[in-house]
Amino acid sequence: MNIDLNADLAEGYGDWRMGDDEALLEVLSSANLACGFHAGDPTIMQRTIRRARDRGVDIGAHVGFPDRQGFGRRPMQLGAEELAALVVYQLGALAGMARANGARVTHMSFHGALGNMAAADRDYAEPLLRAVASFDPSLVVLSSSSVAMESAAAAAGLTVATTFLADRAYDAKRLLVPRRLPGAVIHDHDTVLERVRRLLADGSVVTHDGAVIPMPVRSILVHGDTPGAVSFARAIRAEIEGSGRAVVPLSRQAA
Amino acid sequence: MNIDLNADLAEGYGDWRMGDDEALLEVLSSANLACGFHAGDPTIMQRTIRRARDRGVDIGAHVGFPDRQGFGRRPMQLGAEELAALVVYQLGALAGMARANGARVTHMSFHGALGNMAAADRDYAEPLLRAVASFDPSLVVLSSSSVAMESAAAAAGLTVATTFLADRAYDAKRLLVPRRLPGAVIHDHDTVLERVRRLLADGSVVTHDGAVIPMPVRSILVHGDTPGAVSFARAIRAEIEGSGRAVVPLSRQAA
Amino acid sequence: MNIDLNADLAEGYGDWRMGDDEALLEVLSSANLACGFHAGDPTIMQRTIRRARDRGVDIGAHVGFPDRQGFGRRPMQLGAEELAALVVYQLGALAGMARANGARVTHMSFHGALGNMAAADRDYAEPLLRAVASFDPSLVVLSSSSVAMESAAAAAGLTVATTFLADRAYDAKRLLVPRRLPGAVIHDHDTVLERVRRLLADGSVVTHDGAVIPMPVRSILVHGDTPGAVSFARAIRAEIEGSGRAVVPLSRQAA
Amino acid sequence: MNIDLNADLAEGYGDWRMGDDEALLEVLSSANLACGFHAGDPTIMQRTIRRARDRGVDIGAHVGFPDRQGFGRRPMQLGAEELAALVVYQLGALAGMARANGARVTHMSFHGALGNMAAADRDYAEPLLRAVASFDPSLVVLSSSSVAMESAAAAAGLTVATTFLADRAYDAKRLLVPRRLPGAVIHDHDTVLERVRRLLADGSVVTHDGAVIPMPVRSILVHGDTPGAVSFARAIRAEIEGSGRAVVPLSRQAA
Q1: In this complex, do D89 and C131 lie within 8 Å of one another by their Cβ atoms?
Q2: Is the confidence at residue A110, as pLDDT, over 70?
Q3: Which of the residues A228, B163, B235, C73 has an alpha carbon 20 to 30 A from that of B77?
Q4: How far is it, in rounded angstroms, from Cα A50 to Cα A66?
């Protein structure tokens, strides 16, 4: 079986950089590109699209709140009409840039506070996913495991691909433990690699409180904006390949 | 013969409004929508797309500099890579929103300082129009008369439709007299209507310094952000219809 | 007894206007100027400062969330450190512009969602008002009636001046009825004028549910961004003067 | 004789960082803080003010164009009224934050394209410096050597302190060679240190084309946003101290 390895890229803005996108693109099979709202701008989007295209890396839209200063991590209370509009605007902008550069957008995911709110609440997720489907119903929705997202996506006629966040704690419902809680982010690389090995071995994860639960995924997400991110991404890729699997983007995995 | 009547819409931002878009949409055959850089935001773009679609009004992208505070009227010195990226980003965003709402973008034009710089300099216009063509070579480029634009569009494989700015003075080269010069903007409504009548009668315009020159156009532009804009647009429409022509968008004019 | 008449001004941005600031400045004794975060920019701030100075109108800082697109009306979850920083930044910017133009800032108020959150919760108001006091403890805090604000201001050593929002419904605790509830905003001008007359006659207001409660204020706020705002402000001023009072800014009222 | 050692700090924005401000503050005697227009935001300004205050480092305002995406390095054509307004707004914001934190702003400088335009043209510099003087005539203007700046400052009643940019080439008029020209930025650390040594030894600099000219300065500027910036700043400080001088901010240098 193959598995996708993805990260959030194009998170710079103007002269500011975040993460080593070029090096990561050598390791990943998919990239989720910021679309200019919480991070990113047309120039870095264009460059990242071209590099991903040249390396055969899948291009996805990483859609976030319009809050550059807060990096899209602050909850905002926006109406359904505005939410739908900003989802489609970002998807359209990235897809347009991909098209102009001989590439295409294969998937999308929600960033930061927008993603958390959607993963926690089906009523919140539904209009967002209807907006995605109104733009392009063939886009795969990449998400951490969430019944809310899966059911809202099904209602909108969209396919979800679950991605595993190896450095984040899960609860018994397979939801991510919120960042503000202790232990939510696992910083120790050995522990993270051990979690990847377990996932690859038998498709399970150990929850925050010690239970072992199944975690069926087609994809693993690595974070690109931490120190040592590139070498750590390489280590995860080595684990995948050492397990006999290949790193393959969702668009080229057998259904 | 038919003629198009267009204006620049969706120029509000957040709670701020500019022009009476709803009333103008009843008078126009085409609308050029701001795309969120010099004006506009996803919500007003979405609303304006839906209204234009419902009224059979052609939807175009009005592409500008990333300068909301200056309304895109201040020249900015950007590199060719950034210019191409921001043109495609804006086109993609609007086209995506149109697609999600069962509509399509038929044309584009450049706003403010970006438009002036392109109309004055073929070398400046070329990469801009190559960017347009890379996104969608079927987009019609709507422009005031400009040899620079026409020749750059031809090089990029794009069709230009010249639009007549009835309230702006022209020079002997058929270029707009720059706004900062005296007499560049004609405020008297009767004078403007007289210019429209002349154009409709024999396709000519009287230049800034009194010469009569041919002005072959398929379209007339009205400004929507001035006091009395709506009733004035109606008066121009009445002139067109009184001349025996119909107000028809470019996409439905015979080639 | 004298009373202050104030409104929120300088709410334009770039080419966008909101309200007729010049006309209102002829009617008011105090102006609360947006400081460039939820509305306003350096140019309109500078112009409004000069006009207010020339007319002897008190200048206050209207401090809001950093959300121009949402006009500061959307709740944002910001940490205490960031809140303190953005309060002082805005106060400093306006005070600096006043100083450079031979004027001074006499008071401040919180705008929109920031104001609502502070009026409803003493714990939220306290760090905000400590930030105000750290910048200038002589600034008068202008607020709708709120025990939370009054007690937080007292703790910070600041003076509060309560202002009466004639077109907003109050509850039995003298708090504003939230905008989203029916009847929260009173649109009928005659009803609003009747409320002003009652306040001037015996210092009372009729609450949302019909009770009569005392409303001790030194100031009345009018809204400048509604149709007919200027003539309505004049009508309120006429009521004040007809009651034998003078319209006098807080800085010139006897303590 | 003492000399000041300064750098441009607080150039992060939201989650994005630029340079290691904390480490640099241990080496410098003065810091020029971005004020939220080309870089910086209230939070990083507040933190940097507190750290500079605690270390006895002079605080200056680094005033730039309102162009975060372009980092203030793109020329913008703004009118004199807007320029004056944005200069005072930025000075006021920083000075207000300093005041609220028990510190004060001692100096100011112009950043990027705004600085280049002022250094090259006395007519452009004059209204800018009048704006500075209108806010606080005691602010020292820190500038690379420029007759335009010196004469405009004198006209405005302001004191200029010339700072030496050790890694930038100068021409025979003591003006910086524009960045876009070859050799304008000197990347080799040994060459830069040699230039510092010469300056400290006899107050001279070798120009772009080999001439030796006097360069009377009270201050040296180091760049903080390049790799190795901190250790290089330490090396320059060591050169200064090795020459028998002390690193002393302008505010504590004998007049």
Answers
A1: no
A2: yes
A3: B163
A4: 25
